[in-house]
Amino acid sequence: MSSNNVLVKSLTNDQNFRVYALNATEVVKEAQKGHEMFGTSTAALGRTLVASLLLANSVLKGKETMTVRLNGQGPVGFMIVDADAHGNVKGYVQKPQVNLPLTEDGEVDVATAVGTDGFLEVLKNQGGEEPYTSSVPLASGKIGDDFTYYLAMSEQIPSVVGVSVEVNENNEVEVAGGFLIQAMPGAADEAITALEGKLKEIPTISDMLKADANPENILDHLFGKSNLKIVEELPIAFTCDCSKAKFAGDIARISKDDLEQIISEDHGAEVVCNFCGSKYNFSEDELVKILEEKEK
What is the SS3 string spanning the chain? Predict the structure, then answer.
């Protein structure tokens, strides 16, 4: 299993915390490639992909899935991410070609790119007719803080979410990853205080992953390997389940008049998947067949 595409789940030996860490470098590279994204857009979407993977694998089970919608009215516009409990994720950003100046600290300015005039919304598909939906105002636009706030307010779970995506001057993703720490019911106050101090001392996520690509290195910095039990190592991937058949179903839902207009004026159609950028072409004959099926 590649260290660049793995999520590690663990539990502290004292039963105070559940801890997740992941290296999602290849996932973010795949997302960038599909959308020809510039640096700031890549960092914003990449952080959201990382945080969504962490969230999904902490609150979902079985065949459940979730959709994360985030829109702070900033330059990158809205972002939409789908994730499940098995390490699969896909997502896209409304404006992929945004590149803002770095902050005074030399960091990618994700907060300004995302903005804070909006909400983080999570839709959980748990098998019912309608998804369970919850949302919180954006806390900072930095993504990690926003998911931390969501977990505290909507899931009622005291948590810390840390995410990082580093893009170099050549617009290449150097490293991407993150961690999620959740306090277990009855977690000792002194353990929480000690963790708060540790979080101020550890290296950045990017530095930890560049030193050792295995996300267990993050866990080691947080708690020490001897104080943790590894529960699962899960491969993760940017996975899109789009197909020509699915888009044919979408076309069939277009009104009869609009579909007839496309046939008469364009004599065909090209559909592009928002998530992965795949293109599907429908000939005039294929559109006519869809229309005929629609009229039955």
Answer: CCHHHEEEEEEECCCCEEEEEEECHHHHHHHHHHHCCCHHHHHHHHHHHHHHHHHHHHHCCCCCEEEEEEECCCCCCCEEEEEECCCEEEEEECCCCCCCCCCCCCCCCHHHHHCCCCEEEEEEECCCCCCEEEEEECCCCCCHHHHHHHHHHCCCCCEEEEEEEEECCCCCEEEEEEEEEEECCCCCHHHHHHHHHHHHHCCCHHHHHHHCCCCHHHHHHHHCHHHEEEEEEEECEECCCCCHHHHHHHHHCCCHHHHHHHHHHHCEEEEECCCCCCEEEEEHHHHHHHHHHHHC
Residues 104-118: pLDDT tens digits? 988 899 999 999 999
What's the pTM?
0.93
Domains of the chain: 3-238 (3.55.30.10), 244-295 (3.90.1280.10)
